[in-house]
């Protein structure tokens, strides 16, 4: 359970996981055993202005996650996904994001295995289907993902959404609490190095925080210029949850934005590069995606700094 520090009696033991001190400790609170998060703050020494594409964020359990990921949403399984991931890895990406719902987990896993890169160097994320809102089914689908990807573990596992896609906005609070317990057990069982959520708003997040043993380490949300979700970002930061931003190009809609193009020209960068860099400098982890080798490489070339003045201008765009 999530416990306020004022309620603590004494600490019983510390749990180790993946060779590091995990971010939860077993406690006795008024005679009841439970868990409490003991490390909920992102590192204070991260300089978002100068962070480059080879940088890392550190999750609340101490796991390092590459600061730029390669997304695979809408990339079909088979050659498109395999070739895109293979190209991304050759370009220097070390963080690959997939999901059961994408239908490309097997191809993504094959490209990772065939890359010749040490498994320890590649951070792999997948997601539980949004419509799975049952403890036992959640564990079964987590095992399916491991089998599909063909690795002995993944690095991050997320609940894809707080509601089924065909019921967006519906209240699945009780179900999400049960599913989060399955996520916790999947994590404690060593099948994933970290766990989190996706598309959760402040209310959805709080429902998990109030009942969990282990706090979410990541919330992956849609984030781009004109859609920064400030309330969610601030709430996550306050609770030590790293925000990942998918669709940093607004699924391509930003590419023809003349205001963004003018700013990009100042830095001799593309609209895509500026948009991806913007997400990173806002404190979130960007997840660009493409099937074109030239764009895959270009999207990773974001080692420049957007001025505070230009960040404010981009913030003002709607």
Q: Mind explaining what this structure looks like?
A:
- The chain is an alpha/beta fold.
- The protein is 34% helix and 19% strand.
- Strands 6-7-8-9-10-11-12-13 form an eight-stranded parallel β-sheet.
- α1 crosses α2, α1 (79-91) runs parallel beside α9 and α2 packs across α3 (135-149).
Quickly list its features:
alpha/beta; 8-stranded parallel sheet; 318 residues; 2 domains; 3-stranded antiparallel sheet; 19% strand; TIM Barrel
Question: What's a quick, concise take on this entry?
Answer:
The chain folds into two domains: 1-38, no CATH class; 40-316, NADP-dependent oxidoreductase domain (TIM Barrel). It is built from ten helices and 13 strands.
Produce the secondary structure layout:
Elements: E1 10-17, E2 20-29, E3 32-37, E4 56-58, E5 64-66, E6 70-71, H1 79-91, E7 95-97, H2 105-114, E8 123-128, H3 135-149, E9 156-159, H4 173-188, E10 195-198, H5 202-209, E11 218-222, H6 230-238, E12 242-246, H7 258-266, H8 271-281, E13 285-287, H9 293-300, H10 308-316
Parallel strand pairs: 6-7, 7-8, 8-9, 9-10, 10-11, 11-12, 12-13
Antiparallel strand pairs: 1-2, 2-3, 4-5
Helix pairs in contact: 1-2, 1-9, 2-3, 3-4, 7-8
Report helical residue fraction: 25-40%
CATH class of the largest domain: Alpha Beta
Distance between the termini: 39 Å
User: If helices are DSSP runs of H or I spanning 4 or more residues, what is the number of helices?
Assistant: 10
What low-confidence regions span 5 or more consecutive residues with pLDDT below 50?
1-45
* DSSP strand content: 15-25%
The helix-strand sequence is EEEEEEHEHEHEHEHEHEHHEHH
Count of distinct strands? 13
CATH architecture of the largest domain, please?
Alpha-Beta Barrel
Biggest sheet features: 8 strands, parallel
Looking at this structure, what is the CATH superfamily of the largest domain?
Answer: NADP-dependent oxidoreductase domain
Classify the secondary structure makeup into a structural class.
alpha/beta
The count of domains is 2
Query: Based on CA inertia axes, which overall geometry fits?
Result: globular
The overall average pLDDT, rounded, is 88
> Could you say what the CATH topology of the largest domain is called?
TIM Barrel
What is the rounded Rg?
Answer: 19 Å
